[in-house]
Amino acid sequence: MDASSRYGFINAKLRARIGLMRESHLLQDMEKTSNLVDAVSCMRDTGFAKVAKVYDETGDLQEMEYVLLTGEIGSYQEVAAALDAKPAAFVMQLLGKIEEDNLKNAIRLWFSSIVRLHSIRYRSEYLCKMKIVNDINWNALINATDWKGVVASVKGTFYEPILSSFTQDKIHQFGLFDVETAIDEGWYARLMASLDLLPREDQEVARKIFLSDFDLKNLLNLIRFGWYYRMDAKRLRTTIFPWGRLYGSKEVDAYIASPVDSRDPGMMVKRFYPQLSDEIQKVVGESKEGLHSEEAMARETLRLERYLQNVRSKEYHQLLSMNPFTIAVPLAYFYLYRDMDASIRAILNGKYYGYCDEDIRGVLG
How many structural domains comprise the chain? Predict the structure, then answer.
């Protein structure tokens, strides 16, 4: 089977699955239930029946989340197996996002155990310890007695030079924020470099969606860390990724250089997301007038994040109208699959902890 036929075969299969996801009333049915048991019952005759089975056997919410995670990993591996070598390698690079998230979770467990001196025995049972992309010794990582042991657990992977650039003293002093930022940027750099693996049309499709992603991520980080958390200029600059329209723009540079207490994201938003300008000016104005408590400001920041997430969702849905013999359909599928998983997790957690319907809907956006 040639490359075009392979794309046609896998994309037809993925479009059918996407159609089922879009037509499914699972999330609405789960949201309408009054408790966790009824929410789980909605999953029994769906593609998430394994999750319901785990609940029947264990009643363990985190075990259910683990099954969701392994299913998501399997979705990437299945698509990669159906593609030619270069597109398959690119899909495995996409899967690396799940791996780096798992790595950050593992390092947080180590930090909690060694630095905070908290027991991690229960939480470590739910860490994904299977091989995702790279050979990482997950057990050695969470059981490491010092930072050198953590670095040794990722020996031979691209994470090794990233983690070895930090010391245990620095981590004790500043925490994991800079470590996690470096891991993120390392993965994104590899992702952008991996575009060279693709045919030209695929490169154009992927580059457009990822550069838009970087703009959204950078704007969220600039607002969250620079405005809400008032991070100093030097550290704030490390939170933005070196791709997209925002990076290096005069509006972003001026925003970062502004005094922490008088930063105004308005000009930045007006330039790149004018449709959001009125909303951001309202939020900033109210905060300056002292009308917002810390809780209210956090809520407003979350509202802005949801808005930008909706922008991102629309862009991924637009991929479905592109050439069916490109990487567009797999990219849309992975996004929709992950979004579906995240929504199921939010509903299950909401029902488990007894959140009201309004709070659950707020998380779902």
Answer: 1
